């Protein structure tokens, strides 16, 4: 009897241990599932109680915190006031308002600071307003969004119009006019700011499919600069890639031309004209070019013949169709150097004095922008008027 009682007790103890072990195992599995789910939410950038609150100092968040401290120090050093708040997911939201001259230096410092911490800096939205341009930046470390930065750049107020004067007798001879078109806008961010800083009328030719096309077009418009569509057209050299969905080809259908033009006007909504990007083959084909120009005319767009080939017929065809048009006179940077561009600017003035007007086309290369910036005081002494390209159309 005593042996039976001892055996039952052992069996009961063994059952309790098994039950306890089962409970512990189940609890461990449940906890592991919760931790895994929380970790997946954390990696996806969602709010996680464990990883956002309990384990707050994870590697990515620590990097974000170090970046935040350095960013606050940078803003204090530059004397830039800002508002700061952190949402429930730990994302920092900053609002900064500053004058236009401070914008580019701060943007450069911000990009360098993000890169120094191993993060990614993305301009996600640009809104042009009457008195400012608003930029929305996102900063990510690893896979996590850590900062949303809203920067408002105040634009300089336009000078008050001078009081009306009595009509003066007409001048004996019109002042020669020169215009500058800057091609390939949209491949880099903030090029529009550099054009604005030149302080002269500039026409920006925006590549519709370029990554910064829409934001650059919006900034050009906000700055009061002129913009046209820099539309890719088929070149003679077959080595230059020309996909049908981005280039107008000699055999493009009317529907394809219309689709490309519609897409271009969506990307560059304030454009009043078009010039050709490449296009040496298309602009030399009278039949194909006429069909293209007719589409431009239907939209009320003028055409600037970039004259990428001596055999171009685009300018003469546009005149036959009764369109507003102009032909390029000088390339500023067919040789990419400061000295060459300075010489080409002088040549432009000579052409303008001979013909009453002249058009130069260039690209936003550092050497081109530097030469043009340095030439502005000289240009203002030459008794020529610097205008938008729309003001020298024929």
Explain this structure to me?
Strands 6, 7, 8, 9, 10, 11, 12, 13 and 14 form a 9-stranded parallel beta sheet that branches. The protein has a 5-stranded mixed beta sheet with strand order 1-2-5-4-3. Helix 7 crosses helix 8 and helix 10 crosses helix 11. With 394 residues, the protein is α/β, with parallel strands linked by helices. It has 2 domains: 96 residues, no CATH class; 216 residues, TIM Barrel.
Q: Determine the CATH superfamily of the largest domain.
A: Glycoside hydrolase/deacetylase
Proportion of residues in helical segments: 40-55%
Instruction: Please tally the β strands and state the result.
Output: 14
Topology as H/E string? HHHEEHEEEEHEHEHEHEHEEHEHE
Distance between the termini: 122 Å
Count up the helices: 11
Structural class designation: alpha/beta
**What's the alpha carbon Rg, rounded to whole Å?**
31 Å
Strand content: 15-25%
CATH architectural name of the largest domain: Alpha-Beta Barrel
CATH topology group of the largest domain: TIM Barrel
Let me know the average pLDDT: 84
Low-confidence stretches: 54-58, 158-173
Report the major sheet: 9 strands, parallel
Overall morphology: elongated
Top-tier CATH class of the largest domain: Alpha Beta
Number of domains: 2
Question: Which features would summarize this protein structure in a list?
Answer:
single chain, 394 residues, alpha/beta, TIM Barrel, 2 domains, 5-stranded mixed sheet, 11 helices, 14 strands
Provide a brief overview of the structure.
The chain has 394 residues and is an alpha/beta fold. Helix content is 43%, strand content 22%. Strands 6, 7, 8, 9, 10, 11, 12, 13 and 14 form a nine-stranded parallel β-sheet that branches.
